Amino acid sequence: MTYVSNGGLRPSRDPMIRNVVVSKGADAADDWIAGNARANDVVVTADIPLAARTVALGAHVLGPTGRPFTPETIGMAVAMRDLKQHLRETGESRGFNASFTPKDRSQFLGELDRILRRALKSVTPN
Q: Which domain holds residue 19?
């Protein structure tokens, strides 16, 4: 597992966890992830443009609330993100995000399990 951030990561002692700290530039972490993600990798992100970039690479992409981003769904996700950004910029919306709920956590864990099984199946011979 690789965590990517522009700072503030607490190092893990687990040898299976890698922390990557990138520059503080805009989208530096996203650029690192998109530049290093490969087909069949699992990417967890709430950032829709990053999700679109990694879906295009063939990665399995999951939002923190358990929402999967796929080639079939990413176009609508990008369109909705752009619409919401426009509404915030024009003052039509304040842009508050819903709180993370126990249901979100449960949905995330279930979807993560499904995605990991699917990813593993595609790299392991039957």
A: 1-36
Same domain, 64 and 5: no
Structural domain count of the chain: 2
- Give the global pTM: 0.86
Is residue 10 domain-shared with residue 51, that is, in the same domain?
no
Q: CA–CA separation, 76 vs 10, rounded Å?
A: 35
Extract the tokens encoding 17: 């966890």
Predicted confidence (pLDDT) per residue in 43-67, tens digit: 999 999 999 999 999 999 999 999 9
Residues 30-62 as b or e (16 or more Cβ within 10 Å = b): bbbbbeebeeebbbebebbebbbbbbebebbbb
Token readout for 36 is 């290093």
